[in-house]
Specification:
single chain; alpha/beta; TIM Barrel; 2 domains; eight-stranded parallel β-barrel; 13 helices; about 15% strand; proline dehydrogenase; oxidoreductase; Proline_DH_dom; EC 1.5.5.2; flavoprotein
Amino acid sequence: MLGPVILAASRSDKMRRFVSAAPGTKQVVDRFIAGETVDQVVPIIEDAAGKGLEVTLDVVGEDITTPEQAADARDAYLELIERLKDLGLGTKAEMSVKLSMFGQALDGGHELALANVRPVVEAAAAIGTTVTLDAEDHTTLDSMFAIHEELRKDYPQTGCVIQAYLFRTEEDARRLAAAGSRVRIVKGAYKEPASVAYQDKAEIDKAYVRILRILMEGDGYPMIGSHDPRLIAIAQELGRKAGRKLDEYEFQMLYGIRSEEHLRLAAEGHRMRVYTAYGTDWYGYFMRRLAEKPANLLFFGRSILTKG
């Protein structure tokens, strides 16, 4: 399987240099990354709003090695929120954050990440929107969930992400499927060992459906992160069986992938949110997109061959 190999490459400085220098890289990166600056991403938010779509914005970057870099990441989100406020787009765009960007892996990282993310959550709430804490590899999750629980004391709309391929996730879903919670379910995009995660795609899909049923039958607000037509249809059926209205859950898909499906679901009356990443430190995010779907890797390979 190529996926684990690509995920391993996402941590390699040598591969980072090779991919960054490849002639066809920019063409493919532009497919998944909306831009490098706030100014470049604002028109995309406005265009999505005009089409009945919502967005969640991710300022990409995970390799944080100093508290100063973590503070810079915090400030990048605060700048984004200020622009959304000025443009009146607060209700159309939320933020997704990786706590690794806020210093989670540094010494005292749990407290540092909480201190950095709190003003972002506070600023988002002030303009009528919210923040979702992205899930990363399994070693970070206890810290992420603890920070999520702490933030929800003052900002109960703060969301979090769970990953279907982890054995622990069904229990996490039962705990999180409570009134007022916002939970995004994804398959998972990190290289995880067989001791903690399903390795077989069919088993991951089965787990996804089991977890999705828990969320739909619970009292929270499920956010279905998937491009899989079969899982989307199952989510719609589970929502119907649970008696949910179309605005009592939402679909989320990545910017640049299945854009026509974004519009189709919105036209049917579903809430449809586009996960939109931007920034200059795109490598880790980009490599996980390649790992998730073989077609993405083929597209990248063809681009290198035709541009080389």
